[in-house]
Amino acid sequence: MASQFLMLALLFAITCSIALASDPSSLQDFCVKDSNSSVLLNGFVCKDPKLVQADDFFFSGLDKPGNTSNPVGSRVTPVTVTQIAGLNTLGISLARIDYAPWGINPPHTHPRGSEILTVIEGSLEVGFVTSNPENRLITKVLQKGDVFVFPVGLIHFQRNIGYGNAIAIAALSSQNPGVITIANAVFGSQPKISADILAKAFQVDKNVVLNVQSKF
């Protein structure tokens, strides 16, 4: 009897953990973000359903290339709850990523969503790194039509390994997955992380850290 109760409790705990692993489910047809509300909560306040319009569920322009004239040679065009108010509580979003030849989408994480990426044009080298202590790199070269998954929270990247432009579409399991670009966060934080701390963390000379910080 005790073992049956333990198994039931374990099953309940696992079910709860799965239920809490993504954005909460909606309890009505929709909950369009009310941009005029000053109330702070985990998500966004719902607009009065009577005031909802088709444009609350609409975004245009994903067919247009992003400007990749920047140091990393890529541009992400996000379509999250910020761009489509009707995504509020739905637990999904997407993005278009454009890559110049040999451009990269630098190592980054999405703290609130897993990602599934589809190559639309070109060839991409992609990969993610598992958590401590293994820190194992899982990587693959993708061609047009190939799909790859990046688990939630893990550091991942893409690189265009072709001589022409590349395009990918990424779908994410959150209305607001967030993004933390590792280099920007570590070397470009405001105020700056102490160069002494970073020098010790990366096992390099302090002047190297100061030089890298100056680029951000």
From TrEMBL:
SUPFAM superfamilies per UniProt = RmlC-like cupins (SSF51182)
Query: Which residues does the annotation say bind oxalate?
Result: N105, H110, E115
Q: Which PROSITE patterns match?
A: GERMIN
Keywords, alphabetical: Apoplast, Disulfide bond, Glycoprotein, Manganese, Metal-binding, Secreted, Signal
Signal sequence annotation: 1-21
Family, as annotated: Belongs to the germin family.
- Name where it's found: Secreted, Extracellular space, Apoplast
Functionally, this protein is described as follows:
May play a role in plant defense. Probably has no oxalate oxidase activity even if the active site is conserved.
* UniProt-recorded name of the protein: Germin-like protein
Kindly list the cysteine pairs connected by disulfide bridges. Answer: C31-C46
| InterPro entries recorded | Cupin_1, Germin, Germin_Mn-BS, RmlC-like_jellyroll, RmlC_Cupin_sf
Taxonomically, what lineage is the organism?
Answer: Eukaryota, Viridiplantae, Streptophyta, Embryophyta, Tracheophyta
